């Protein structure tokens, strides 16, 4: 059982925001926004063209409402096209939206490139990196990781976005033990045993996977590794109460969900979302559109919308009116766990993961969340079977589930009825359940797929 310590209030990374009201923070952000738009207009032919197409200049934007009404400038597809064009015309791969000189770029990182060619979305100048390091240091400090300590870093190393986090870890005086996740569980666990880090960074599914593997691979439980904090990124896992509790109990430490430099979840038993600690880095999460109509929607406590990103302050490749396809729920009320008064965000899914079943929008993460309430009667692993391209699904939606190790096959019908009832009331759908033996749905070290696509 996790030793209960008093929940610490999350603060903004830049202390000036801790003394400001929400309104003052918005005003401050608006000044940064105007400055950034002028900078991008002046330095990037792509952004200049975008403004010219709609017949305005950055000076014409007088309010956030003016700004939120502008069309989307960028998404992955456009990003790929303008990267190709910048290589052809200027001999660099970063895209026509590059605002600095390519010589000033000191880091470039892509997403894992699971769909299509990777994009160099995370491209920074030295000034950018130094600015971003402050946010990572702030998070480590909140998680109780201090200079002189070690941190097990098990992401895919190399050209990936997560590699930029290493700079932030070092800037805090913490030694990263960077073991590429592709080296496998045994290697990761052996390095953890040898170096005894205070903290770890990995995906929640890897953290979960190592719980099962540690006794066999290194002859000890993960709880004996002595970790005091785990920071996870990239999946919804920690937002599911059972998964958060399972990992925290097994490792006997707190798990924090973080979103790059934008924010992290607090030190509370319950999950209250990513606390947005970086108003000077991004407008996140105040610019939202309706996932279906793509029209701007207003932010209020509990609103669900698709994120439009605009990065402030960054100099190399700031994203401006960038549609990431992420669907989030935004909370504007004070955090019930720690008292943080800024915005909080829970990830709901991706607009391209959204399913429409009998006219209702259903997100895989909601299904996962409902299903996880039935652990250990089930293992929690699941696949949503798609026989046709989404979003429209001809009902019933098929879901593959693994029954638990010790479950009684005679009680499966009853379990199935209870799961269907829960999904009906909480996700507005009644699926067909396909039972699988425990351990038969493959678990990936990086990101476990949620869909099984049969088309
Ligand atoms: Zn909190």
Automatic annotation (TrEMBL):
| Spans traversing the lipid bilayer | none
Q: Which SUPFAM superfamilies match?
A: Acetyl-CoA synthetase-like
List, alphabetically, the Gene3D superfamilies matched: 3.30.300.30, N-terminal domain of ligase-like (3.40.50.12780)
One matching Pfam family is AMP-binding_C_2
Q: Name one GO molecular function term.
A: ligase activity
Please name the PANTHER family in this protein's record: BLR5969 PROTEIN
Tell me what this protein is called.
Phenylacetate--CoA ligase family protein
Question: What species is given as this protein's source?
Answer: Sporosarcina soli
